[in-house]
């Protein structure tokens, strides 16, 4: 009895169970199969009874064939989401370490609404065992070699080979780069430290963020209309607004998605078709970019994975310059409020859109060219004009502006203007929304937030008539005439606005006279 009690119970992997079942299916007697594998007849009967269960597990790859137990994970939907992501990454031959899987699990758990989930080492080991994943340890030296050696080799290989072939048939005017960035559009200087490094995967802060897509060509002569993605599909501030300096879309997380990116691509393709142009578009391989529609006038070229920090022109100073201009405009607004002793109001989406677009259009062509040259995609001798360094901004005036606002708003001494500019650089701009949509039952995650959710309550602005607009231009012209050393370009821009308004009002009057004439007839 003692020996029987001490007998160790044997456990079989799914692979072993399948071999037992296959032996029976081959026509062997059950008694002979039991003796061959050293199991009792009752154990064999159990294997045959449960065969459909573990065959399904292995067929769906939800459990590795070496796994001995079929118990599901405690957070089964997180487990499925992480494994679906792992399969996608593995198919692309991308190196994945245990720490990367743990971070991804936390990310997906947050998206699925699990606040208490911990991607511990124990969870990682169980996840690995459940799916039969072998993770190789990568030492620090190997990591440095992969990032520095392999990364540099990949960049040099791309410069020497693929990019030359891609750009061979295109002029710099027809070579474009598109990329997205996240923006905490309501961020104030005194809150910079709290926002620094925040990935904003969802929750309340999703209401305070936007994702912006920018696209420009290598010659710096063309910047495309920005695409802004927010969380609210119909914010109050956009009510009765029919013209914006950008395209605006919305979804639940204010992220770029495959559908939104493909919609933008089709619009650009149609634009190039009308202009009888063919362009090369360079993009990274983020999740929103990996299932493209059929395009007639756009050839898409993918930048090498894990190399966009040194190869993507928009990442090499263009987007940073846009954020410098956007944040400096915010500082000017804050300073004006402080000087007039008015309460500081939060920026709404309409104001943010206007400032982001204005900042984008204000990025100098020379800055754009400099960043393309830095990426090594166009030669250094391309530019005909003197190229200033993209890093020359912010200038002394912006630093003085920051210093004044920082003192007035009690910004900590360790926070500088660059911290304020780069506070949202780590924001997630696209994610595995297709995976999450399959995990969240009964919830349409592609839908945008509600109309009023997270919206800043600002007083309703009265509608401005065209007569009032013309009067305002006249007052502005009168004000500028009292100023000293006003650039000619400012008067030129004012004349353009005046001409547009006068054309509108004249056409309205002409149309009304024709209508009156027809009525009298």
Automatic annotation (TrEMBL):
Keyword hit for Transmembrane: no
One Pfam family hit: DDE_1
One GO term describing the cellular component: nucleus
Keyword match Lipoprotein: no
SMART domains hit by this protein: CENPB
GO molecular function terms noted in the UniProt entry: DNA binding
Domain HTH CENPB-type: 66-137
Domain of life of the organism encoding this protein: Eukaryota
Residue ranges for the DNA-binding region feature of this UniProt entry: 30-50
Gene3D superfamilies, per the entry: Homeodomain-like
Subcellular location: Nucleus
Start and end residues of each HTH psq-type domain: 3-54
Name under which the protein is recorded: Tigger transposable element derived 6
């Amino acid at each position: 009895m003692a020996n029987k009690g001490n007998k160790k119970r044997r456990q079989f992997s799914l692979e072993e169970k399948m071999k037992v079942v296959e032996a029976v299916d081959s026509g062997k007697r059950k008694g002979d199969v039991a003796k061959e594998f050293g199991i009792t007849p009752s154990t064999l009967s159990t294997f045959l009874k449960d065969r459909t269960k573990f065959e399904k597990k292995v067929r769906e790859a939800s459990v590795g064939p070496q796994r001995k137990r079929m118990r599901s994970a405690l957070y089964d939907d997180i487990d499925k989401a992480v494994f679906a992501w792992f399969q996608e990454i593995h198919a692309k031959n991308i190196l994945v370490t245990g720490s990367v899987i743990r971070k991804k699990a936390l990310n997906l758990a947050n998206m699925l609404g699990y606040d208490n989930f911990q991607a511990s080492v124990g969870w990682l080991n169980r996840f690995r065992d459940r799916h039969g994943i072998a993770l190789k340890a990568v030492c620090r030296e190997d990591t440095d070699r992969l990032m520095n050696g392999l990364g540099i080799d990949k960049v040099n290989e791309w410069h020497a080979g693929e990019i030359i072939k891609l750009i061979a048939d295109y002029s710099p005017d027809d070579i474009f780069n598109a990329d997205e960035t996240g923006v905490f559009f309501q961020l104030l200087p005194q809150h910079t430290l709290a926002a620094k490094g925040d990935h904003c995967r969802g929750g309340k802060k999703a209401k305070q963020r936007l994702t912006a897509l920018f696209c420009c060509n290598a010659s710096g002569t063309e910047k495309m209309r920005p695409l802004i993605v927010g969380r609210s599909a119909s914010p109050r501030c956009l009510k009765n607004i029919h013209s914006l300096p950008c395209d605006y879309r919305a979804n639940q997380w204010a992220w770029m998605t495959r559908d939104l990116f493909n919609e933008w691509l089709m619009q650009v393709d149609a634009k190039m078709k009308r202009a009888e142009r063919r362009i090369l578009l360079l993009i990274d391989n983020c999740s929103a970019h990996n299932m493209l529609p059929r395009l007639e006038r756009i050839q898409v070229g993918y930048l090498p994975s894990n190399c966009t920090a040194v190869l993507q022109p928009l990442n090499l100073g263009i987007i940073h310059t846009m954020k410098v201009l956007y944040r400096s405009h915010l500082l000017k607004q804050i300073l004006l409020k402080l000087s007039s002793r008015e309460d500081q109001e939060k920026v709404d989406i309409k104001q943010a859109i206007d400032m982001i677009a204005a900042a984008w259009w204000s990025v100098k062509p020379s800055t754009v060219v400099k960043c393309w040259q830095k990426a090594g995609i166009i030669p250094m001798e391309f530019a005909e004009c003197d190229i200033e360094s993209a890093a020359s901004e912010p200038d002394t005036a912006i630093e003085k502006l920051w210093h004044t606002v920082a003192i007035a708003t009690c910004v900590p001494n360790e926070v500088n203007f660059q911290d304020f500019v780069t506070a949202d650089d780590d924001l997630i701009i696209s994610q595995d929304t297709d995976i999450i949509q399959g995990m969240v039952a009964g919830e349409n995650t592609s839908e945008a937030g509600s109309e009023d959710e997270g919206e800043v309550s600002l007083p309703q602005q009265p509608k401005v008539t065209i007569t009032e607009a013309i009067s305002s231009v006249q007052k502005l012209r009168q004000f500028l005439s009292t100023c000293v050393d006003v650039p000619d370009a400012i008067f030129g821009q004012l004349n353009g606005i005046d001409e547009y308004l006068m054309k509108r009002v004249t056409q309205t009057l002409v149309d009304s006279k024709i209508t009156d004439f027809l009525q009298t007839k």
